Q: What sequence folds into this?
């Protein structure tokens, strides 16, 4: 993670490389294991993904069951807290820890869905623009400039509100508005790969543009696409949380961390943990995605590090 | 130079109108504005009357044409919700948001540039690592949550600043911090890499050998060159602050354009939403244009090519 350790690691790998040649895969593993940020990010994401996956097994209570008699119970560190509800309960008497655990499911699935839609749009446009160039490229560039000028959050809010909030609408709209990063990177990478000898060789041996794109260009873009996907995952998760917080995203009673912050807001002066805890969950998930993305970038393309 | 600016200006206008076109069609296809004005349980006749009254019975391209003609004359239509000209509504609220955006940009500058410079001048030390940590964390913090935490900390637990409102300068401190914090990572990283690059340049070595040290070297030689790209990024970030004001203004109950946006969305007030998207897009492209021009004006190398 720190500049000095990665630099040292690089010097070391460079030195050992001459002594005993490693396969690229071995080199990558070595770089991964000496990259603190990557390890922390991967660990956080893996832990939260497992929590999301096994939520029904981990959660101590049903996250949807309301109980009028146990509303707004304090967490266990409070004098009045009990171990039955470790993090207390919310304004409807639902177990807060269980809702936080299920919230990981909502955040991660929306993040994955939206980042995948953005990937499909951005990579298709990027590869086509980079490969064909000319007016196609000009057209895509104009589209890019227009998309960047769109106030994304505002349009997303308006569309979700108008179409009617459901998890699919939220995924679709966040995805459709987050493709520019994929486009910018894959477009310039395609332009670069296109001018390389092996593409010329493929063209000379009679490959169609479609074959060149699928067999020569796309496979070489995959490491970069994975890196962007990881960053976009974090961005999409924050976008969902913002929409849900403003009331134009995930609707009650679904446990979304953004929505839980909005619900806890009314009581935040007396029960700050209702707001603090879901925010910490969001922060952990997003910082995990960002560290993982930074790490993957360093590991897959160490020479391109800025 | 003039030709360059004109060309970029035309492109920016084209972009702004493309955005307005896209927004218009998306907003009007996704909903029936007449139904939205009339309310969920209005009879079919009422909806029809409203449709005719607001000209909503015309085909969509015709309506966009009418909107466009109006806009060119400064008429953005009438708000369905407040029943007065949208342009008036926006004009009333714009001042607060401009103040907030500028204050937020100042916060970004005050935090990001010193932090980036400190990191660049002490590379690979704990200072550098701390600055990187701040950037990585600021990128992952949900902005609306940061706002609530700031209110809990500095308006309730240690009551230095008011919880909400927009009456005095003190009301703007916390919102400006929250809105400004989101730009800190980008600006800080850029300052850091720019300064590291500049510090290893030949002319800095020359200046060093001529006896320049510390502050003078930094001010007269290094910062001036390192900050060139930062200035244009700051212009872009300022453009984004307007769109970003939606969350900050709703948390701190600031009566600006962001809050107007949220209110008009929740009120299905399409003309207001449409104008706000157009205004935010115009501000964004204008700031990008400004960034391009600043870049060209400040860096003679770009002007030549």
A:
């Amino acid at each position: 993670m720190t500049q000095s350790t990665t630099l040292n690691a690089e010097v070391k790998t460079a030195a050992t490389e001459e002594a005993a040649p490693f396969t690229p895969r071995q080199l990558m593993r070595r770089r991964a294991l000496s990259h603190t940020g990557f390890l922390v990010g991967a660990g956080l994401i893996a832990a939260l993904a497992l929590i999301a996956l096994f939520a029904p097994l981990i959660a101590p209570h049903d996250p949807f069951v309301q109980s009028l008699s146990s509303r707004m119970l304090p967490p266990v560190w409070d004098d009045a807290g009990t171990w039955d509800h470790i993090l207390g309960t919310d304004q409807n008497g639902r177990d807060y820890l269980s809702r936080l655990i299920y919230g990981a499911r909502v955040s991660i699935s929306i993040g994955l869905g939206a980042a995948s839609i953005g990937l499909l749009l951005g990579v298709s446009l990027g590869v086509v623009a980079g490969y064909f160039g000319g007016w196609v490229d000009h057209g895509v560039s104009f589209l890019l400039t227009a998309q960047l000028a769109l106030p994304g959050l505002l349009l997303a809010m308006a569309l979700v509100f108008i179409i009617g909030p459901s998890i699919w609408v939220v995924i679709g709209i966040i995805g459709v508005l987050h493709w520019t990063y994929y486009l910018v990177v894959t477009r310039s990478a395609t332009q670069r790969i296109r001018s390389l000898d092996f593409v010329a060789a493929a063209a000379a041996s009679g490959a169609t543009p479609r074959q060149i794109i699928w067999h020569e260009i796309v496979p070489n873009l995959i490491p970069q696409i994975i890196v962007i996907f990881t960053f976009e995952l974090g961005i999409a998760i924050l976008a969902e949380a913002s929409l849900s917080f403003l009331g134009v995203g995930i609707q009650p009673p679904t446990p979304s961390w953004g929505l839980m912050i909005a619900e806890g807001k009314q009581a935040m002066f007396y029960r700050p943990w209702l707001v603090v805890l879901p925010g910490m969950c969001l922060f952990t998930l997003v910082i995990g995605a960002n560290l993982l993305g930074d790490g993957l970038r360093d590991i897959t393309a160490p020479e391109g590090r800025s | 130079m003039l030709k360059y600016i004109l060309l970029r200006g035309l492109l920016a206008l084209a972009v702004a109108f493309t955005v307005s076109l896209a927004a218009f069609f998306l907003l009007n296809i996704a909903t029936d504005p007449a139904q939205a004005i009339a309310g969920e349980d209005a009879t079919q006749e009422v909806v029809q009357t409203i449709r005719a009254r607001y000209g909503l019975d015309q085909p969509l391209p015709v309506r966009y044409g009418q909107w466009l003609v109006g806009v060119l004359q400064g008429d953005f239509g009438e708000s369905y919700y407040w029943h007065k000209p949208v342009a008036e509504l926006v004009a009333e609220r714009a001042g607060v948001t401009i103040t907030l955006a500028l204050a937020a940009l100042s916060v970004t500058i005050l935090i990001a540039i010193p932090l980036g410079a400190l990191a660049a001048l002490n590379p690979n030390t704990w200072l550098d690592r701390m600055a990187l940590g701040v950037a990585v964390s600021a990128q992952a913090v949900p902005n609306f949550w940061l706002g609530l935490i700031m209110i809990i900390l500095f308006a309730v637990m240690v009551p230095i600043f008011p919880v909400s409102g927009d009456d005095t300068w003190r009301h703007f401190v916390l919102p400006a911090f929250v809105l400004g914090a989101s730009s800190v990572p980008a600006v800080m990283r850029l300052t850091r890499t720019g300064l590291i690059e500049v510090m290893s340049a030949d002319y800095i070595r020359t200046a060093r050998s001529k006896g320049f040290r510390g502050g003078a070297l930094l001010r007269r030689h290094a910062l001036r060159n390192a900050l060139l790209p930062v200035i244009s990024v700051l212009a872009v970030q300022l453009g984004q602050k307007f769109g970003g004001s939606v969350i900050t203004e709703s948390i701190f109950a600031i009566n600006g354009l962001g809050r107007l946006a949220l209110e008009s969305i929740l009120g299905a007030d399409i003309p207001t939403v449409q104008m706000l998207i157009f205004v935010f897009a115009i501000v964004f492209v204008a700031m990008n244009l400004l960034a391009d021009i600043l870049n060209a004006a400040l860096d003679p190398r770009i002007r030549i090519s």
